[in-house]
Amino acid sequence: AQRVTQPEKLLSVFKGAPVELKCNYSYSGSPELFWYVQYSRQRLQLLLRHISRESIKGFTADLNKGETSFHLKKPFAQEEDSAMYYCALSESGSQGNLIFGKGTKLSVKP
Amino acid sequence: NAGVMQNPRHLVRRRGQEARLRCSPMKGHSHVYWYRQLPEEGLKFMVYLQKENIIDESGMPKERFSAEFPKEGPSILRIQQVVRGDSAAYFCASSPLSVDTEAFFGQGTRLTVV
Question: What is the chain A residue with the closest CA to B97?
Answer without folding.
Answer: A94
